[in-house]
Amino acid sequence: MAYEVNKTDGTILLNIQEGEIDTTYGLNLLGKNYLGYGELIAENFVKLLENFNSNDEPANPIVGQIWYRNTDVVGEPKQINIYQGGGVWKPVGHLFVGTQPSLVKRAKGDMWFDTANQGVFMWDGTAFIQLNNVFGVPGLETGVVINETIKDTNYVDATPNLNIHPAIKLKVNGILVAILSSDADYVPHASENLQSFCGADAGGVDANLGSGDYNQTGIIGKGLNLNSSSDFKIRGVAVEAEFADVAEIYVGDATYEPGTLVALGGVNEVTSTMFDGDPSIFGVVSTRPAYLLNARKKREKHAMPIAVAGRIPTKVSGPIGKGDRLVASETPGVARKATENDPLFSIIGRSLQDYDGEGIGLIEATVGVR
Question: Is the pLDDT of residue 292 over 50?
Answer without folding.
Answer: yes
